[in-house]
Amino acid sequence: MKKYSAFAIAREALRHHTGWTRAWRDAQPKKRYDAIIIGAGGHGLATAYYLGKNFGITNVAILEKGWLGGGNTGRNTTIIRSNYLQDPSAAIYEKARSLYETMSQDLNYNVMFSPRGVIMLAQTHHEVRGYQRTAHANALQGVTTEFISPARVKELVPIINLDGPRYPVLGGLWQARGGTARHDAVAWGYARACSDMGMDVIQKCEVTGIRSEGGKVVGVSTSRGDIDCDKLGMVVAGHSGHLADMAGFRLPIESVSLQALVSEPIKPCMDVVVMANTVHGYMSQSDKGEMVIGGGTDGYNNYTQRGSFHHIEETVRALIETFPMVSRLKMLRQWGGIVDVTGDRSPILSKTPVDGVFINCGWGTGGFKAIPGSGWAMAELMAKGRSPLTDAFGLNRFQEGRFIDESVAAGVAH
Ligand SMILES: Cc1cc2nc3c(=O)[nH]c(=O)nc-3n(C[C@H](O)[C@H](O)[C@H](O)COP(=O)(O)OP(=O)(O)OC[C@H]3O[C@@H](n4cnc5c(N)ncnc54)[C@H](O)[C@@H]3O)c2cc1C
């Protein structure tokens, strides 16, 4: 792999950009791998990357039914934060956030991590108490957050309306090193690094069956033939229920569409991320100037990846209360992604009833921020059979009633 650098850009500019090589190989499936990862979203690619980087396991294939990063990874609104309430969540999300800080250097790929700060607005007294509690919990967990006053919110976000008609702004939970990153670049950077380690990223290869013998996985059936493996990681977000069904177990998970939209590009007007959970909408400004706007999930289970009119209306109506300037914006496009939601709004990183099969899912509406931490932990789980970061997130927590309740943080957990 040729190293990307300022010098390389200058050199290629002089020779009309004829010297660049492909970022990753167009790999063909081999007969057998030590490990197969199903799903080339951020979590699957990060799992493969850390299997290679941290454990030297490089005979790995990442199988993707569409194109890499074409699932939720390429459809999300890219908010990164780690201000969760419960200790296991803060640990894995903060691990991820800290890995984002150096990801561009680590992957030699500019993922445009922008730690511009994230505010979660408190607009009811219940939310004030909830976020103050989270700030205290974060202080104990070593996650730097602070509960700020309405005046400080206004200082950080001059375009905000503090005295909304229904819900005035009473303060906010501020994480100064939260922010955003370029979602495609995260997938592409990991894919390039995996390919460079000799791993096969195989697109247009749908897994159609899981093969096991005597309760142990032996391989998968795919649209491009059977492939054998010793270990299998299922990392398919909204399709996790289907894959679990193929392997012969059930998951406590629901798939729903989550939607987002962007406006036309405008001059820079907001340099932090703002989430307004009570009115249910959130907004940031992209580097191109578009206002990136997200709302909630559909109220019924479905597998669509489209936007719908009622969501634009609900989300924009909510945001106009907090940002009156939104009423004058033209919207450019909207879309949806299939998110995988658990009852306690926390992910599942776990062994499964089939020996050698591991599952990573349930990131729901908020898994982009977790990609590096999740990949790091899942790789350790697959390589060593256990990871301190995944211990609390096992499937058995649903049988044992050990829920990791993040519904306060994750009501709008983007
Ligand atoms: C509109 C929207 C906004 C969001 N905003 C945020 C946000 O601001 N911040 C945040 O942290 N998170 C956000 N999220 C959530 C985040 O996008 C997801 O949690 C995260 O991207 C999940 O990544 P993944 O790698 O698990 O899944 P995906 O990126 O969906 O990857 C799974 C892959 O598996 C593939 N696959 C499925 N079935 C098969 C099969 N049988 N064989 C082979 N491949 C298969 C799919 O094609 C897909 O590419 C948002 C999501 C949406 C939809």
From TrEMBL:
InterPro entries: FAD-dep_OxRdtase, FAD/NAD-bd_sf, Rhodanese-like_dom, SoxB. Its cofactor is FAD; FMN. It comes from Sulfitobacter marinus. Keywords: Cytoplasm, FAD, Flavoprotein, FMN, Nucleotide-binding, Oxidoreductase. It is found in: Cytoplasm. This is Sarcosine oxidase subunit beta. PROSITE patterns: RHODANESE_3. The keyword Heme does not apply. The keyword Nucleotide-binding applies.
